[in-house]
């Protein structure tokens, strides 16, 4: 059997792919933001005095990290309406991405804060620094620097995971691809092109993250 | 609403069988090619290093779902009549080989340089140096990350559901559509994944902590 490739059929739909790509980037950025908020709140809750709150955070992290995203997004998709919340699929997808990324962010941020040694904080106070300054200069910035590589690679993973949101018909690149496929029957060409677009998106993001890191964390540590 | 009875549970268990099989096949196949990729990635040959770096970059920079689609439809284009199971297994094998290759490259490079030098000084050739000296040490270093990836892979097999392959998640979808009890069904499906993944994750992080302590 001879097969003739026809990428023309796919390229005709370039505007749709472009909008889909913007949808993917938007979904990813919103998901990252929500993940960061959940991550920070989770870390605060995890050091709470209440044992129940601490246990709840641990259970949340373990459950999310040990179940597939696809099952999580289905669960949330069906659970929200039962709670009387009706949202469009894209917003539901952002919530699912935020919850999933948030669980990983909690573990990453916690590790970063624990990496700042007690002695440094005491030294800061001994130098007469204000509590706020100690937190900003001695805890926050080095902790940010410590978590930056793992947090950003988690964000890249989150960006790639957005493709799974097609399963609830959120607005993004993979669902655009599936629409084009069902119109043109050029399955291989469509998915090959879209895979290349994902590679471009994730490479650009990695480059951007590296640029930010070089700009903000470029100070000597010893 | 329909009840979740013995039949539904049996159907889920059949799905689970495919989930576990896919994870195992992907892990073993990925392991075999992964070790090859790790060796090429750390070899002296610049072309081999560049090609494997590109291979790893492509698989780590694109969604697993897209990899599944491309392989699934790509295999069909080759004109060989393969069933869905083989196509999906091939996709997971390729995916796992890139990730395991990268993990094992890191652990091969983490083995102290002195070990290679000592092996050279003893006159060991490449195969023996790798097989008897470097790889056993690298394997130990890589264990936590390797187990972590096995968890990722097991969760990743759920994406085969989107391609239409009936594994645990797809079985859950079908039952959910039949019984109109999505929360209960996906709750059960999630719990099954958790029962498989959590002990692995736990073992991996315990191992990691123990090794960090030993290194101190």
TrEMBL record, chain A:
Q: Where is the ABC transmembrane type-1 domain?
A: 21-209
Q: Which UniProt keywords apply?
A: Cell membrane, Membrane, Transmembrane, Transmembrane helix, Transport
Q: Which family does it belong to?
A: Belongs to the binding-protein-dependent transport system permease family. HisMQ subfamily.
Which compartment or compartments is the protein found in? Cell inner membrane; Cell membrane
The identity of this protein, by name, is Amino acid ABC transporter permease
Residues annotated as transmembrane: 20-44, 56-79, 91-109, 146-170, 190-212
Q: Which residues form a coiled coil?
A: none
Asked if the keyword DNA-binding belongs to this entry, the reply reads no
Under InterPro entries, the record lists: AA_ABC_transptr_permease_3TM, ArtM/GltK/GlnP/TcyL/YhdX-like, MetI-like, MetI-like_sf
Q: Which Gene3D superfamilies match?
A: MetI-like
């Amino acid at each position: 059997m001879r097969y003739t490739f026809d990428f023309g059929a796919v390229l005709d739909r370039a505007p749709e792919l472009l909008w889909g790509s913007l949808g993917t980037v938007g979904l990813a950025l919103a998901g990252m933001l929500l993940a960061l908020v959940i991550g920070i709140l989770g870390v605060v809750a995890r050091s709470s005095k209440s044992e129940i709150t601490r246990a709840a955070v641990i259970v949340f992290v373990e459950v999310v990290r040990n179940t597939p995203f696809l099952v999580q997004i289905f669960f949330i998709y069906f659970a929200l309406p039962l709670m009387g919340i009706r949202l469009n699929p894209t917003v539901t997808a952002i919530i699912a991405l935020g919850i999933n990324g948030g669980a990983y962010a909690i573990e990453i941020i916690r590790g970063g804060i624990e990496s700042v040694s007690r002695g440094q904080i005491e030294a800061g106070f001994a130098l007469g620094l204000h509590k706020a300054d100690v937190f900003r200069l001695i805890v926050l910035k080095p902790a940010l620097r410590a978590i930056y590589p793992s947090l950003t690679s988690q964000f890249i993973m989150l960006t790639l995971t957005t493709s799974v949101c097609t399963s609830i018909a959120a607005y993004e690149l993979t669902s655009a691809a599936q629409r084009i496929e069902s119109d043109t029957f050029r399955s291989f060409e469509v998915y090959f092109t879209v895979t290349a677009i994902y590679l471009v998106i994730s490479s650009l993001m990695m480059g951007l993250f590296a640029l930010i890191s070089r700009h903000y964390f470029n100070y000597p540590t010893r | 609403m329909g009840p979740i009875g013995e039949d539904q549970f049996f159907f889920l268990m059949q799905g689970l069988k495919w989930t576990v099989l896919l994870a195992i096949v992907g892990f073993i196949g990925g392991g075999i090619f992964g070790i090859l990729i790790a060796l090429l990635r750390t070899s002296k040959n610049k072309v081999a290093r560049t090609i494997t770096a590109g291979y790893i970059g492509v698989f780590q920079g694109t969604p697993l779902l897209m990899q599944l689609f491309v392989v699934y439809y790509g295999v069909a284009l080759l004109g060989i009549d393969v069933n869905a199971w083989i196509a999906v297994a091939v996709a997971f094998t390729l995916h796992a080989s890139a990730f395991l290759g990268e993990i094992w490259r890191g652990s091969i490079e983490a083995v102290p340089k002195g070990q290679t030098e000592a092996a050279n000084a003893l006159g060991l050739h490449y195969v023996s140096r790798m097989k008897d000296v470097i790889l056993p040490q690298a394997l130990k270093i890589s264990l936590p990350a390797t187990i972590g990836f096995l968890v990722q892979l097991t969760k990743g097999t759920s994406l085969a559901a989107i391609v239409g392959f009936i594994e645990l998640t797809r079985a859950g979808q079908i039952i959910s559509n039949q019984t109109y009890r999505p929360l209960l069904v996906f709750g059960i499906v999630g719990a099954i994944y958790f029962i498989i993944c959590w002990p692995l994750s736990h073992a991996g992080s315990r191992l990691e902590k123990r090794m960090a302590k030993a290194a101190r």
